[in-house]
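pasting Probable cytosol aminopeptidase for the record, 503 residues
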Amino acid sequence: MEILLIKEDILKVPADILVVNLFEGVEKPSSAYGGIGRALGGIISQEIKDIHFQGKEGEMFTISTGGKIKAKRVLVVGLGDQKSFSDETIRRVYGTVIKNLRGKEVKTVAAILYGAGIGGRSAKDVASALIEGALLGSYDFSKYRGKESKKSEDKNIRELIIIENDAVKARAVAQGVGDAKLAAAATIYARDLVNEPASVCVPSHLVEHARAIAKGSQGKVRVKIFDREEIQRRGMGAFLAVAQGTSEAPYFIHLTYAPRGAKKRIALVGKGITFDSGGLQIKPGDSMATMKLDMSGAAAVLGVFSKITELAPRAEVHGIIAATENMPGPGAYKPGDICRALNGKTIEIGHTDAEGRVTLADSLSYAVRLKPDAIIDLATLTGACMVALGEEITGLMTNNQKLGAKLRECAEECGEKIWELPLAPEYKPLIKGTHGDIKNSASGRYGGAITAGLFLQEFVGEISWAPLDIAGPAWAERDTVPYIPKGGTGHGVRTLIKYLQRI
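structre below
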């Protein structure tokens, strides 16, 4: 879908659909719509009364313009209660609009930035939210569907036109549109990776993507790939332990973006388990069905790097991924095994299905050696976090409250829900090993998300660090948010982009 920004009388814009937004309880379009109500002879207000339209968020109806204005039809869409209006409202509403128009032979949709100025909301922010909602709402992973699906796609929206006649606002709008297109493209990149079958998205597939990102960066992104032999030579015994049970070769990926004059160094670490069977302590069938999602952290890191040259942060950024499967094949690691991580600590295996933190032990240890100002890791880490926070909220832990506050602020602005959990030191004895330094599965049933965080903390030293447990929001089991369809969500990408923009 192409995004166009134009200066034009709203009544003279040729489009299949012109979107008109109304807050709850409002019975006619505001003056921002340039007299559209009068031009159409009051039929919008009459229809609102006739069908008892209330303006609740996402409520909508369509009327024909009868040739009285250039647009063929007007789509009236409710924004809900003005008191609770936010950027996230705009994302949800335009995600709903685009989804409802999909497949209906609507080629061109036009809209104004209704809502700018409300609650101090800038034109840039409204534009960004609108475009994010529209682009992310239009997403459909149809790669493996047949010809009928392709025919249906031909009926989808081709152009979204944003109308802005104020020259000063137009510059801000253009910036907001640009930011949104970048963030949406990076998120969609991550979604595509997660939605690929695990038979396709094996560790070498992530390597191919990392190399392609570097190749297309005009030398601005460098990549190092370590194979099994190099991983072993470097002493990443924890990562290799998890990789023992699969026939797929493991790879360690290190991407680097290093602009001139960078004063900060940030390491982004993504969990890269391309399929998690649970290992020898195998998962039940129902729990295994979606386990291609276990590389969502890696997908988020690659998504960010896919657009990092356009993003152009003023920081040196490293992307680190330990990519493997967790399988119960010959040689698979076993409960009771002890492996040595890159930082020298030994890990006693209490459960083979707590493998993500074991691979992250080496990824984080490697990141520490880069001497970054901050490490942020993203992982589908624990089911316990989902028990605590549900399917839509990321669990954040941190050893640096300033870093945590920045990430919370960025996530909130992006509409990616986040909640902080404590790194409670009183729980540390629960991960103390019997014959090794620490164990990967805590004693007892409770506090599993926190003990996983405490485990990871053993590998970051004094570096400012924030782990994001995205086990819940990385995958949507159903359409809960209008711009997030079922499947891989790309969660975390927009938060990271916002964070990097502000360094």
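The radius of gyration is 25 Å.
Residues 61 and 76 are 5 Å apart (CA to CA).
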